[in-house]
Write a structure and sequence with these properties.
single chain, mainly alpha, 2 strands
């Protein structure tokens, strides 16, 4: 994660620039996933404080990401999000897993 991402607005701008989506729940999930992979870490409370988003919404995302092993304790399995070829798709798919729109079976590579 870049040192330039310091505030929630930085993460929101990154999402808007790279994965524009008019659905606010998708936008929030993307911001949470990136912030968790950055300095905030995969903590519901820390993410709620950092983002100002509803803690219950973040808790649901967290349950889904932990169930799929995208979030593991204090680590995030990036699954190639930053690869030039296919990284954006991997990130979108992991976002959808958090939202409960897709299921990712732990232990299987994408």
């Amino acid at each position: 994660m870049s040192d330039e991402l310091k505030t929630v607005k930085d993460y929101e701008s990154l999402v808007n620039e790279n994965w524009p989506d008019e659905r606010p729940e998708v936008h929030r999930a993307m911001v949470c996933l990136l912030a968790a992979a950055g300095d905030v870490g995969p903590s519901v409370i820390r993410l709620a404080v950092f983002t100002g988003y509803d803690q219950r919404e973040i808790a649901q995302l967290s349950r889904n990401w932990r169930k799929s092993k995208i979030w593991q304790r204090e680590k995030i399995k990036h699954s190639g999000w930053f690869d030039e070829e296919g990284g954006g798709i991997a990130f979108l798919m992991d976002t959808m897993v958090g939202m409960g729109s897709l299921e990712r079976v732990p232990g299987q590579d994408k």
